[in-house]
Amino acid sequence: MIGYIDCECIIYDSQSLKDKRAVLQRVLTRIKQKYNVSISEIEFQDTWQRTKFGIVAISSSKVQTERELHNVLQFIDSFPEIERTVTSFEWF
């Protein structure tokens, strides 16, 4: 089962693209180290207070994939500098 999430976020304290990149680098690196998912910024690369992640997880069962993706979303929510706004799931 393949699970895909589109996840839009706002980074309130970012005053420049450099600030945004520092926050994103920290978040993306920790997610890649801790969870068995692929994650990348897929939109708003030149906007300094918005971002959109694409997150993909693959496993043999939908329950296991869904659990992993929800854990990633909870981890993103644990960062005080990022607020998750629009999130959508797709299953393949």
TrEMBL record:
<protein>
    <recommendedName>
        <fullName>DUF503 domain-containing protein</fullName>
    </recommendedName>
</protein>
<dbReference type="Pfam" id="PF04456">
    <property type="entry name" value="DUF503"/>
</dbReference>
<dbReference type="InterPro" id="IPR036746">
    <property type="entry name" value="TT1725-like_sf"/>
</dbReference>
<dbReference type="InterPro" id="IPR007546">
    <property type="entry name" value="DUF503"/>
</dbReference>
